[in-house]
Amino acid sequence: MVDFSLWDILRNLLMALRWTVVLSFIAFVGGGLVGGLLLFLRLRGGSVMDRAVGLYVQLFQGTPLLMQLFLAYFGIALFGVDVSAWTAASVALTLYTSAFLTEIWRGCVASIPKGQWEASGSLALSFAEQMRHVILPQAVKIAIAPTVGFLVQVIKGTALASVIGFVELTKAGSMISNATFKPFVVFSCVALLYFVLCFPVSLYAKNLERKSHGRRA
Fold first, then answer.
1. What's the pTM value of the predicted model, to 2 decimals?
2. Residue-wise over 176-214: b if at least 16 C-beta within 10 A, else e?
3. E-assigned strands of 119-162?
4. Of 67, 182, 210, 215, which sees the most CB atoms within 10 A?
5. pLDDT, tens digit, for every residue of 32-56?
6. Angle subtended by helix axes 85-110 and 136-157, to nearest 10
7. Cα–Cα distance between 193 and 188 in angstroms, integer?
8. Exposure class string for 106-122: b at 16+ Cβ within 10 A, else e
9. Contacting residues for 90 by C-beta, under 8 A, at least 6 apart
C-alpha cells in the first residue's frame, strides 16, 4: 500500500483531468464537424441520404458507448492496424458525439417555420444561400443551449474510455485506489472533479436556454 496524502491524490487526479478535458474537446469539435457534414447531407442529399444518415444516427444512439469503444479498440485491430487507446477513444467519442449533434441540429433546423423557407425561395436564393442567410442564423440561436448542454454528456462519457486503458480521470482514480486502498476518498475526489468540470457547463447551458426562451417570448 502506498501512503498518499489527500493533496497527493488530488494532484495526481488533476494531472489526469487534463486528458479528460483534451479528449472531451477532441470529441466535441470532431463530432461537431462530422455532425455538421451529416446535417448538410441529410438536408440536401435526398431521401436516400436522409435514410442513410438517419440509420447512422440510430446506430450510435441505440448502442451503448461502451460497446462502441470496444469495437473501435479491438475491431480496427482486426484489419492489422495498430490502434492506441487514445486513437480508439477519440474516434469512438467523435462518432458518438456526431450522431447526437446531427439530431439536435436537425431538430433546430426543422423548428424554423416553413414560411421562412418559402420566403427565401421566392427570392431565388440557392439552398446554400437560404441556409447561410435565413435558416442557420435562426437555427443557431435555438441550437446553442442544447449543444452546450450535450457537452456535459460528452465529458461524462469520457469516463468509459478507461475500459480500453485510456488514462483519464476515472482510470487514474482506479489506479490510485488500487495503490492506496482508499477507494472512498479517491472516488469522492474523482466525483468532485467531474462536478467542478460539468456544473459550470450545465449552468451556462441553462442560462442560454433561459435567454433563448426570453427572446422568443
1. 0.89
2. bbeebebeebbeebbeebbeebbeebeebbeebbeebee
3. none
4. 182
5. 999 999 999 998 878 899 999 999 9
6. 150
7. 9
8. bebbeebeeeebeebee
9. 23, 26, 27, 30
